[in-house]
Design brief:
- The chain is 31% helix and 21% strand.
- By secondary structure, the protein is α/β, with parallel strands linked by helices.
- The strands form four sheets. Strands 1, 2, 3, 4, 5, 15, 16 and 17 form an eight-stranded mixed β-sheet that branches. Strands 11-12-13-14 form a four-stranded parallel β-sheet. Strands 6-7-8 form a three-stranded parallel β-sheet.
- It has helices at 85-101, 116-125, 161-174, 201-213, 225-234, 247-256, 266-272, 279-301, 324-331, 337-343, 346-351; strands spanning 5-12, 21-29, 32-37, 49-52, 57-60, 62-67, 104-109, 133-136, 140-142, 155-157, 179-182, 218-224, 238-244, 259-261, 369-372, 389-394, 397-398.
- It has two domains: 5-60 and 359-398, Urease, subunit C, domain 1 (Roll), CATH 2.30.40; 62-351, Metal-dependent hydrolases (TIM Barrel, Alpha-Beta Barrel), CATH 3.20.20.
- It is built from eleven helices and 17 strands.
- The structure holds zinc ion.
- Zinc ion binds at residues 66, 68, 110, 311.
């Protein structure tokens, strides 16, 4: 039995979308929230530790639905292939600690080189160092195509229904929490054609089925319309990127209740470093950049749930800077501050099938939350200000700063 902790005199933004609750309290017992609110406070046992949070704002722990923890943000991601995996694993441990201290208590790693993420996850669970809760997709399942050699060890090449099924089973055997597949070509490798469909519907369906047997979902990398439609038909839960979706593809997503995980702020990073990143990436990014904002706005209008993801680890897209995407969604008038926070908490938890455990601050949920020095609904930049995050708690335990 851990000592219960009562956080008092805080402004509570519980993630449910209602107005902030003034002078609220939150009680944590055995890693879980047992009370949250400002009325009818339950009887507190005498050994309870009381923390006065006057002037502070509490929000749920943030969730990034799309990262690549084993990538470092090099100017050219190809450089990763020159780094030894053992050194890389240590680097990832540090970067996951940075990510947690930035307020991200859960991350979904959608495709990893050589299962480094599973090692880091085991290290965190063993208590060797602090890091977020990690959901790992293992290797990305991709058809034989040009470009996969750019990320050595990240793909499991599979062709045909049986091979795709086997590839999915291999990831699950390795310990994957979800599956990730390529429904279209990619921006970040030289041969990828983002507009071109890749795996066929029946191949993707085999992957989705294998995950579903174990209650695990499938994420699809998909830029353009036909690939999105194929992936939704196959039963994937989340569409990653969706940069070139059209009205028809969005309609198919809306009807199926598929989640969209845009990774939008990275396109500005490409522009900011246009002289340093490979020309082919910049060229492909520019093709989609102009229409991407409108596509996300349209998706929201059509009722498609949009959850937050960063693609952290890609060029200049550093781990620990994940909240930049939340700010970007607000800056670009895609979402209100409240909606952007929900995209990174409640909606994100639903997208990754963790909503019973995380995403909101309600009794029964895991005690993952942040204490902020300012009201994020008035000024969302508090999430990236130095000192803006006063404390991060994961499973009721304070993260060491
Ligand atoms: Zn990605």
């Amino acid at each position: 039995m851990e000592t219960p902790t009562l956080f008092t005199h805080l402004t509570l933004i519980d993630g449910l979308g209602g107005p902030p609750l003034e002078d609220a309290s939150l009680l944590v017992e055995n890693q879980c929230i047992t009370f949250a609110g400002n009325q009818n406070l339950p009887e507190i046992s005498p050994d309870t530790l009381v923390k006065d949070c006057t002037g502070q704002f509490m929000i749920p722990g943030l969730i990034d639905c799309h990262i690549h923890m084993e990538l470092h943000g090099f100017a050219d991601t190809f450089q990763e292939n020159l780094v030894d995996d053992k050194l890389r694993t240590l680097r990832v441990a540090k970067q996951m600690n940075d990510t947690l201290r930035a307020g991200f208590t859960t991350v979904r790693n959608v495709g990893c080189v050589n299962y480094i993420d599973l090692a880091v996850k085991a290290g965190i669970e063993a208590g060797y160092f602090q890091g977020p809760e990690i959901l790992s997709a293992g290797r990305i399942i991709s058809m034989t195509c040009s470009g996969t050699e750019y990320f050595e060890g990240m793909y499991r090449i599979a062709d045909g229904v049986d091979d795709c099924r086997k590839a999915a089973r291999e990831q699950l055997r390795a310990g994957a929490d979800l599956l990730k597949l390529m429904a279209t070509g990619a921006v970040m490798n030289p041969g990828g054609v983002p507009g071109a469909p890749q795996l066929n519907v029946d191949e993707m369906r085999a992957v989705v089925e294998e995950g579903a047997k174990l209650g695990k979902h499938t994420a699809a990398h998909a830029h353009a319309a036909q690939g999105i439609i194929n992936a939704v038909k196959a039963g994937v839960r989340t569409i990653e990127h969706g940069t070139m979706a059209d009205e028809k593809a969005l309609k198919v997503m809306a009807d199926a209740g598929t989640y969209l995980i845009p990774t939008i702020s990275l396109h500005d990073l490409f522009e900011a470093h246009s002289n340093e990143i490979p020309a082919f990436m910049l060229e492909k990014s520019r093709e989609m950049q102009n229409t991407y904002l409108d596509i996300i706005k349209q998706a929201i209008k059509m009722g498609i749930p949009v959850a937050m993801g960063t693609d952290a680890g890609t060029n200049y897209n550093y781990h620990g800077k994940n909240a930049a995407e939340i700010l970007y969604l607000v800056d670009q008038d895609i979402m209100t501050p409240m909606a952007a926070i929900q995209a990174a908490t409640r909606t994100a938890a639903r997208a990754i099938m963790m909503e019973k455990k995380i995403g909101t601050l309600e009794p029964g949920k895991q005690a993952d939350f942040l204490l902020l020095t300012e009201n994020p609904l008035n000024r969302i930049q508090v999430l990236t200000d130095s000192g803006g995050i006063a404390a991060v708690y994961k499973k009721g335990k304070a993260v060491i700063f």
